[in-house]
Design brief:
This protein has 294 residues and is an alpha/beta fold. 50% of the residues lie in helices and 12% in strands. The protein is built from twelve helices and seven strands.
C-alpha cells in the first residue's frame, strides 16, 4: 500500500525504512529538505492515490495540531490520518472530531521501540474505529515485531495513546527501581563489582528485562556512570499518567514517586533538603552544612 509519512526524525526516518523493507511505498515529508521526499504537505497529498493514509510523526501539542489543521484542508472524504506521535489522548478525541467534519478518519497509535525499532520492530497500541484501523493494518503489520505480540487495537479513539501513556508511566517506575538499587549497591563497601551484580540478574531472575539489559550496556560503557550528570528530564506522558490517576481515583504511588524523583534531579541545592536540615538542627541539634563549606 501507499503511505504518506510526516516527520522523518529518529523514529520517523527508521519507520519509513522498515515499512519500505516490507514492500510498501512511503512518501515522506520533513521540514529538513535533506530528509524529505517532497517539498510540501500539499505535494505529499498530491502524490498519494486516494483513498489516502497519512501518518503524522511530529511532536505533540502545537506541531501536531497545525499538521492536522493543514491535512484537514488538503485531504478528502474517505482518507485516514494516523497520529503516531506522543499526543495526549484527549487531543486525539478533538482531532478525530475535527477531521470527521470532512469525512476523514482518524487513528491514534502509541509507538514504542526507539532507536532499536528499525531492526526489532515497534510495539504498537492503536485506537480508532474498526474500519479506519483496518485501512492502516498493512502498515501496522510491517512495523510490529515478528511473532504474535507487539500490536493491539486497544479500543476507541484515544485508547492507543492512553495505553502508551500508561506504558511510559510503568517505564518510569521500573527505571527508578533499577536506579535506586544501583545506588544502594554502589554505596556499600562489601559489594566490589556492582556492574557484574547487575549482569548476573540478566538470566534466571524475576527482575530481568530489556531495561536491565540496557542498564548493563550503560555500565559497560561507563562502569560507575562518572561521565553523566544526575539529571533526568520527564516527558509529558509521565505527568499525564499521574493526572489520569487523580481523575480516576486510582492510586499510583510508585509511578508518582518516580516522576517526582525526576523533579528532584533538577535541583543542585534542594530547597526541601534545606528545610529538613534546618528542622533536624532545631529539634535535635544535628549538624548542618553551610554553602561556604563547599
Amino acid at each position: 500500500m501507499e503511505l504518506g509519512l510526516i516527520g522523518l526524525g529518529k523514529m520517523g526516518g527508521n519507520m519509513r525504512e522498515r515499512i519500505r523493507r516490507a514492500g510498501h511505498t512511503v512518501i515522506g515529508y520533513d521540514r529538513d529538505p535533506e530528509l524529505s521526499d517532497v517539498d510540501s504537505l500539499a505535494e505529499l497529498v498530491e502524490r498519494l492515490e486516494g483513498p489516502r493514509v497519512v501518518w503524522v510523526m511530529v511532536p505533540a501539542g502545537a506541531p501536531t495540531q497545525s499538521t492536522v489543521d493543514e491535512l484537514k484542508d488538503l485531504l478528502a472524504e474517505g482518507d485516514v490520518v494516523v497520529d503516531g506521535g506522543n499526543s495526549r489522548w484527549t487531543d486525539d478525541e478533538k482531532h478525530a472530531a475535527e477531521l470527521a467534519e470532512r469525512g476523514i478518519g482518524f487513528v491514534d497509535a502509541g509507538v514504542s521501540g526507539g532507536v532499536w525499532g528499525l531492526e526489532n520492530g515497534y510495539a504498537l497500541m492503536v485506537g480508532g474505529d474498526d474500519e479506519h484501523v483496518a485501512r492502516v493494518q498493512p502498515v501496522f503489520d510491517a512495523l510490529k515485531p515478528e511473532g504474535d505480540f507487539g500490536y493491539v487495537h486497544a479500543g476507541k479513539v484515544g485508547a492507543g495513546h492512553f495505553s502508551k501513556m500508561v506504558h511510559n508511566g510503568i517505564e518510569y517506575a521500573m527505571m527508578q527501581a533499577y536506579a535506586e538499587g544501583w545506588e544502594l549497591l554502589e554505596a556499600v563497601d562489601s559489594v566490589t563489582d556492582v556492574r557484574e551484580v547487575f549482569r548476573s540478574w540478566q538470566e534466571g531472575t524475576v527482575i530481568r528485562s530489556w531495561l536491565l539489559d540496557l542498564a548493563v550496556n550503560a555500565l559497560d560503557d561507563d562502569e560507575h556512570l562518572d561521565k553523566l550528570r544526575g539529571f533526568a528530564a520527564d516527558s509529558g506522558e509521565g505527568r499525564w499518567t499521574v493526572e489520569a490517576a487523580i481523575d480516576n481515583a486510582v492510586p499510583l504511588p510508585a509511578i508518582t514517586a518516580s516522576l517526582f524523583a525526576r523533579f528532584a534531579s533538577r535541583q543542585d541545592d534542594s530547597p526541601q533538603m534545606k528545610m529538613i536540615a534546618a528542622l533536624r538542627n532545631q529539634f535535635g541539634g544535628h549538624a548542618v552544612e553551610s554553602r561556604s563549606e563547599h
